[in-house]
C-alpha cells in the first residue's frame, strides 16, 4: 500500500475543502449500497491513496456520526463499515496529519445530516428488506400464492401480499412482475402501486413500477385501472394494450403484441416500441447493479424500438444504435447523455 505520508500534505485550514467532503459523502453512500462491488471497493481505496485529506474526511465523518460503528453492531455488518475500517487501519497517518481534527463547523454538520439520511435508507431495513417477497437485479423468480395465483419477478423487485376474506391485494413497491391470476369470484385481485390501483378482470399481465411511473402491459383479458394521484375515472385496459400511470393520471392506450412480449419475458428480454429513452432507462435501472445517471428531459425526445436483453449488454446495444454517450463516473455510476 502506498505511503500516504509521502503524498500531498497541504497546510490544513479550519475545514477540509467542500469538494473533498462531498466526495467522501458520495463514497460512503456508494459503499453503503447493498450491491456495492469489488470494483467499487478498489476504486474507493485508490481514491483514499490519492490524498491524505481523503482519508481524513472519511475518518472525521465516521467519528462524528458514529454511524458505521452502530451498523457494525447489527447482525448484518455492512460492507461499507468493513472497507472503511480496513482502509483506516492500513493507512498510517502521522501526528501532524491527525492534528486537523477539530469540532465540526456548520458545513460539515449539514453534510453529515444529508449523509445520515441517505445512509439510513441504504443500511437500515426499509420497505425493500421488509417486503414479503423481493428479488435481486439479475434474478428471475416466481411465487405461488395461497390462492394458486402466480407472480413472476424479474430485476430488483419487492412486493407485499395482503389477502383477506374480501380482497386479494398485491402491494408492488418496486420492480417488475408478470401475474397469472387464479379465479376467485368472491375476492377481487388488485395490484396497488404508488401511482395506480389495478384490478384484474382477466388472468395475465405485466407491470413495471418505479419512482417515475407504473407501466401496465395486458397479455390476456383486461384490467380496470384507477390512478391514485388525481381524480380520474377508472379505465379498462384490454389485451394487446399498454398504458402508463403517473402523477398526471392514466395515459392513452398503446397497441402491443402480447405473444411477442410474453415470449420476450421468458427469454429475459424487454420489448419496447417507440418508447422515450428515459422511460426505457427507468425500467432498465431495476436490472442494473450500478446506478444509472441521466436527465430525463434531455433524453425523452429519443424514441426506442427494440428487443433488449435484460442484462448489462442492453446499455451497450443502446449506445451502438442511438446518438448517445455512456460513461462511468468517478463513483462508478453509469452516466447516459445525448451527444451534442
UniProtKB/TrEMBL annotation:
MF annotations from Gene Ontology: sigma factor antagonist activity
Annotated FecR N-terminal domain residues: 22-63
Ranges where the FecR protein domain occurs: 137-219
UniProt xrefs under InterPro entries: FecR (IPR006860), FecR_N (IPR032623), Ferrdict_sens_TM (IPR012373)
Signal peptide start-end: none
Taxonomic superkingdom: Bacteria
PANTHER family: PERIPLASMIC SIGNAL SENSOR AND SIGMA FACTOR ACTIVATOR FECR-RELATED, PROTEIN FECR
Protein name as annotated: FecR family protein
Organism the protein comes from: Acinetobacter puyangensis
Amino acid at each position: 500500500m502506498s505511503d500516504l505520508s509521502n503524498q500531498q500534505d497541504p497546510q490544513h485550514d479550519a475545514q477540509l475543502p467542500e469538494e473533498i467532503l462531498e466526495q467522501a459523502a458520495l463514497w460512503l453512500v456508494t459503499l453503503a449500497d447493498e450491491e456495492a462491488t469489488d470494483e467499487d471497493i478498489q476504486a474507493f481505496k485508490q481514491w483514499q491513496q490519492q490524498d491524505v485529506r481523503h482519508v481524513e474526511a472519511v475518518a472525521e465523518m465516521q467519528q462524528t456520526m458514529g454511524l458505521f460503528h452502530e451498523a457494525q453492531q447489527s447482525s448484518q455488518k455492512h460492507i461499507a463499515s468493513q472497507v472503511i475500517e480496513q482502509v483506516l487501519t492500513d493507512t498510517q497517518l502521522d501526528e501532524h496529519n491527525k492534528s486537523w481534527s477539530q469540532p465540526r463547523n456548520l458545513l460539515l454538520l449539514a453534510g453529515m445530516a444529508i449523509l445520515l439520511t441517505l445512509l439510513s435508507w441504504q443500511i437500515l431495513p426499509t420497505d425493500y428488506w421488509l417486503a414479503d417477497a423481493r428479488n435481486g437485479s439479475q434474478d428471475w423468480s416466481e411465487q405461488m400464492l395461497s390462492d394458486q395465483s402466480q407472480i413472476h419477478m424479474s430485476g430488483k423487485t419487492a412486493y407485499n401480499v395482503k389477502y383477506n376474506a374480501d380482497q386479494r391485494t398485491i402491494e408492488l413497491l418496486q420492480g417488475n412482475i408478470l401475474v397469472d391470476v387464479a379465479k376467485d369470484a368472491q375476492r377481487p385481485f388488485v395490484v396497488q402501486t404508488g401511482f395506480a390501483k389495478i384490478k384484474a378482470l382477466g388472468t395475465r399481465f405485466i407491470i413495471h413500477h418505479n419512482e417515475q411511473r407504473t407501466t401496465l402491459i395486458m397479455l390476456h383479458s383486461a384490467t380496470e385501472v384507477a390512478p391514485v394521484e388525481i381524480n380520474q375515472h377508472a379505465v379498462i385496459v384490454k389485451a394487446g394494450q399498454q398504458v402508463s400511470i403517473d402523477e398526471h393520471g392514466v395515459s392513452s392506450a398503446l397497441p402491443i403484441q402480447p405473444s411477442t412480449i410474453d415470449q420476450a419475458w421468458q427469454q429475459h428480454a424487454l420489448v419496447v416500441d417507440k418508447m422515450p429513452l428515459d422511460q426505457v432507462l427507468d425500467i432498465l435501472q431495476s436490472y442494473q447493479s450500478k446506478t444509472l445517471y441521466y436527465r430525463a428531459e434531455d433524453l425523452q425526445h429519443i424514441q426506442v424500438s427494440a428487443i433488449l436483453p435484460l442484462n448489462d449488454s442492453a446499455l451497450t446495444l443502446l449506445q451502438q444504435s442511438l446518438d448517445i454517450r455512456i460513461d462511468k463516473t468517478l463513483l462508478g455510476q453509469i452516466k447516459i447523455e445525448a451527444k451534442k
